[in-house]
Write a structure and sequence with these properties.
Length: about 270
């Protein structure tokens, strides 16, 4: 949900590896490069504009500080942003960067500002989740997996906006903690991590809005999430049927960009 993610943990790792491995000049500009990588990768996954003012890498402390992230709303929504924070931290396992599965110990976001907006056709979170989910289709390639031990969202403010409301309603979100995100072996792709985080935020927002938000609006938010889940499940089933047992065709389907990233990461550490 992860900075979250956002957010997205794998993107932080990719930026870190690139900054460390590309030479003295790149190392001197590592913070700027990490911020740029996170921006562009989140934009690719979420299909919206993303800005990150700066990133600060502390190699000795195995930590990255992220400052002033803003994720724009998808088209069709009035509010400018869906998610933002002034500061987040990412604790990383540097040793894991030499393996095929980078590991993040913690992604912590404090006092993020979240906009939950409903319009014709569903909510902004439904749209963002659907955008990330396209990476699970045959046409789009999943990013490499990572391990995420924990994501924490603290003191979040949720602004709920909808045509039926005379004015926006502000809610306080309870502390949100997600542990061991992903499959049984602990690995997960960036797109799935984003889906889990956004879904958890939506669920906690509706819990906080019980008795405050109109019942019909609550039902609309819930309905949109349930319809989206059904569509994604159906899409996955159809994909599995078309690929056959084992999904070998999906594994063979890779975009040029992803191949370059994976080849580059191995080359940085002289992996054969």
């Amino acid at each position: 949900m992860k900075a979250l993610f956002k957010l997205v943990c794998i993107l932080v790792v990719l930026g870190l590896v690139a900054a460390i491995g590309a030479g003295v000049y790149v190392y001197m500009n590592k913070d700027t490069l990490i911020a740029k990588v996170i921006e562009e990768a989140l934009e690719y996954i979420l299909q919206v504009d993303v800005s990150l003012a700066s990133a600060k890498l502390d190699i000795q402390g195995s930590r990255i500080d992220l400052y002033d992230l803003a994720i724009s709303n998808p088209e069709g929504f009035k509010q400018p942003e869906a998610f933002s924070f002034t500061h987040a931290t990412v604790d990383i396992d540097l040793a894991s960067l030499r393996t095929d599965i980078p590991a993040l110990n913690l992604l912590s976001m404090k006092e993020p500002k979240i906009t939950l907006e409903h319009a014709a056709g569903g909510s902004n979170f439904d749209k963002l989740i659907a955008n990330a989910a396209r990476l699970e289709s045959q046409e789009e390639t999943e990013p490499m997996d990572v391990k995420i031990d924990k994501i924490i969202v603290e003191n979040a403010t949720v602004t709920v906006s909808a045509p039926i409301l005379p004015k926006a309603i502000t809610l306080k979100l309870a502390r949100l903690e997600l542990n061991n995100i992903g499959t049984e072996d602990g690995t997960i792709s960036a797109s799935k991590a984003i889906k889990i985080l956004l879904s958890a935020i939506l669920k906690e927002s509706l819990k906080s809005g019980k008795g405050i938000l109109p019942d019909n609006l609550m039902d609309s938010f819930k309905g949109g999430a349930e319809v989206l889940k059904e569509r994604l499940d159906m899409r996955r089933e159809m994909l599995e049927e078309s690929l056959g047992t084992g999904g070998e065709n999906l594994k063979e389907t890779t975009t040029e960009a992803t191949e370059k990233v994976k080849t580059g990461l191995k080359g940085l550490f002289n992996k054969k």
